[in-house]
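Quarterly update from the structural biology core.
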Amino acid sequence: MRRNEIRAVLAPSSPRLDAVRELPAPYAIQRVDGWDELRARLRTAPPSTSVLVDADAPGGGLDERVRELIARFAMNPVVPVLELEPGRVDDLRQLLRWGVSEVVNFPVESLPGAVAHRLGHAHARPLKRRLEALAPRTLSEDAMTLLYAAAEVAVDGGGAPELAGRLGARPRTVAGWCAREGFPPPRRLQAWVRLLLAAALLEDPERTVVGAALACGYSNDHSLRRAMRELTGELPPRARAFGAAAAAFAAELDRRIDARSRKFPSDAD
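Predicted structure, tokenized:
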């Protein structure tokens, strides 16, 4: 993990959230003064930053600001706190439809370790969902494990060495794994996933191009544009960035998987 080994967790004050005073490493809870400050902080926050919010509105029912937050900052995991009573099943379903990355069952899961466990499940979840949607259906379970690990590493600002560390394997072993699954070599795989992450961040209406680039570890917006051109062969407008990157990545996976199948036809059976 990079970014100083810390994953920030932004949390506006509420009686429920104030009960969670500290979180175990690598998480560090940071209090914000209301939802306006929360949105302001998220405009420049890296995608490793999670949001912990109370799901209930002050006057009762679900807080619509949770849905609005996900719509504006889709690549930062949003984890609401909700008391999961039998009568709240519809509310839970609504939260899932909004796109929350996890839900903390309060007060059952009010202990710091339990909250951190939920945050761990939510980590990189928005990017993983995007990768799931564009990945070929023929990918094996091992291939998806590799892709999920690449997503976690990209969100934390890492590269191929960190991918090997995340998988608990030697770099050569990971390279062999990529070849076996029809994936690009680890360095190129991470370059692709980082580009997809940056392109997804460009969809956030309150982020600048420079902000999206810096949040993904590029030195500046020119580096991001260069990576886009090198990997996709084009420089699409901001609104089409993710679609262009996703299509080019999926096409490369198809070519590599097809070439692997022709080379090792028995493995495809």
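The chain is about 55% helix and 10% strand.
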